[in-house]
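Protein modeling request. Please complete all fields; requests missing the sequence field cannot be processed.
Requester role: graduate student
Desired output: 3D structure, token encoding
Chains: 1
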Amino acid sequence: MNNISKMKRKLTVMFTLIVFIIVSIFGFWYFTVKYFGWARIERWELYFISNSIESGNIKVDDLIRFWSKMNNNFKNNKSFIKRKWFINFLYISKSWEIISSDIKDNIEQPFINEVIQMKQSEKIIKKNDFFVRVIEFENWSKFALMKQMRYSTSDYTTDLILFLLSTFFLTIALYYIWRAFIDKTFIPVEKNINDMKEFVHNAWHELKTPISVLHWNLQILKDIKKYDDNFVSELTDEVSRLNNIIDWLIQLSDIDVYKSTQNISLNMLVTEIIWDYQFKISEKNIKINLILAEDEIIEANHNYFYIFLSNIIWNAIKYSDNNWIITIKISDNTLSIEDNWIWISEENLSKIFNRFYQCDTSRTSEWFWIWLSLVEKIANIYDWEIEVSSKIWNWTKFFIKFN
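Delivered output (403 residues):
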């Protein structure tokens, strides 16, 4: 089970890391596209205006008057437009003196001085989260436009860090969710492993006894060097017991193999099983009180439906006293079997479906419950309900509901 725990932990970590990596890649892609997308739009806006000024389509004086009017609107109503959406400009004389300016963004003086000294460039320069374009006129004056990025590098870095932190804490929560989910998913696997371990242990325990008996009896026969009917009879019984145990193991391990089903008459199958056990019924002078209602049709695999019913009916016959009455009743998609088994205490009643469980631990009673583990397994496959009740020194009753 330690390996299973390690596997669950590895799967949880692997799934969590995969989610973290995928979400992080998506976030990095999203914010990068956003950053370069806005940069492309703002570069194009500045390029359009600067080209219009350079080509003479827009007069600088007209542009200054327009921006001055926009600036007044902004002062009167600060919600009119976002500050970052404005374009800052400097109108510079040939002696590098500022003729006119409109600086709405928080631009430090060293950066303004650097812009004043810039020469004309056909390309838009990106500097300090600003796009800058300088245009020189024939009179040696210059017109500098500065457009602050709506989505700056610092915005991009901050959003990306916050997103990665959020993703990190989300994946921590996701780790525990995945762990709970994987633990729940592995419950049937762990149960099967435990069942297999229990099965191997019990099988070894049951097989060891007849093998030991065979070994010692053969050793005694070898030592006395003569034929003995009692030893041979005991050897035959142990071989038969060993063969039965092997049959039980095979049927219990192969119970899920046969998936084919057909419509089976419950009345006919119960009648067939009673007929198959007629010799034992006559030997013990048992009366079968068979109460049949309207025929019930059950969809199941015939072989395993036969095993299911015959195991219950056989145990009822085997452990009933001589001259006893066994009542088998079929009605409303249900089957009840009542007999005078050796009574089962309430403590043992919850254990009778455990493999190899014995209410009576003596080997002479052959009170092996492996057949009932077959019954329970078949019932689980078809989602049938089984209830067992017992009255001390009186009777035991099986009640089966076919869903």
